[in-house]
């Protein structure tokens, strides 16, 4: 079995018109560390994709979907009605649906928001039954060349996470002139080792305190508003040259 990586700008109608669906997908993925480590108490997307992911401008931000191409071997569907399937249920169903996916066999597909010579590229329906991983890129402001930052990264299938990150890196380097890819992660979520395996280097820690109302004080970081937390925490900033 093979996979495709479908690439869109955030301004694409395929992204804009599926905001509630993508919100559900992202919150499902981010709920795994949220519940496991009990640092963050609010969902990843609280207000809107644009606001909470900080993707601005939309024309310069991109999203990558890793999609299973072949028909499933079992008729298992990812629940999107109450009660929703959680992260573990989703990964287990995808394993049953696609037990033998070769994530190194990749077909790249571009929406016309990315390449005007292409046609509109619909997202598969139902998306959650075929979505293995996704990641987004947004401009990162630095004085040392063109750079982008990874955001909105979730993976529900072994090997699909590293694949979608690699595809995003290669796209940024080849088509966007990027020389650096940045990542910011919550230190307490223990993601640094994973990113280091993918070639990212640690840059700095940023301390994130709590305000008097119990919400995160984001004045010293790039975090969005309205984040709830049980205690102060640290961000780990990492960078990879591409």
Automatic annotation (TrEMBL):
Output the SUPFAM superfamilies linked to this UniProt entry.
Answer: Acyl-CoA N-acyltransferases (Nat)
Q: What is this protein called?
A: N-acetyltransferase domain-containing protein
InterPro entries xref list: Acyl_CoA_acyltransferase
Record the organism.
Pichia kudriavzevii
């Amino acid at each position: 079995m093979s996979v495709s990586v479908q690439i869109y700008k955030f301004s694409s109608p395929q992204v804009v018109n599926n905001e509630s669906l993508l919100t559900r997908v992202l919150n499902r993925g981010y709920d795994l560390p949220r519940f496991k480590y009990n640092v963050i108490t609010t969902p990843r997307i609280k207000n809107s994709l644009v606001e909470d992911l900080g993707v601005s401008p939309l024309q310069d931000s991109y999203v990558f979907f890793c999609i299973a191409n072949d028909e499933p071997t079992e008729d298992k569907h990812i629940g999107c009605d109450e009660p929703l399937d959680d992260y573990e249920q989703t990964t287990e169903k995808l394993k049953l649906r696609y037990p033998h996916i070769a994530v190194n066999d990749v077909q790249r597909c571009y929406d016309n928001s990315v390449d005007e010579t292409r046609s509109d590229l619909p997202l598969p329906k139902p998306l959650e039954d075929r979505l293995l991983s996704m990641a987004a890129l947004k401009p990162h402001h630095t004085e040392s060349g063109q750079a982008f930052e990874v955001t909105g990264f979730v993976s529900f299938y072994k090997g699909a996470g590293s694949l979608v990150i690699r595809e995003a890196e290669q796209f940024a380097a080849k088509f966007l002139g990027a020389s650096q890819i940045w990542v910011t992660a919550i230190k307490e979520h223990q993601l640094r080792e994973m990113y280091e395996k993918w070639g990212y280097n640690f840059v700095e820690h940023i301390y994130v305190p709590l305000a008097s109302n119990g919400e995160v004080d984001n004045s010293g970081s790039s975090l969005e508003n309205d984040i709830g937390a049980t205690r102060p925490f640290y961000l780990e900033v990492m960078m990879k040259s591409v």
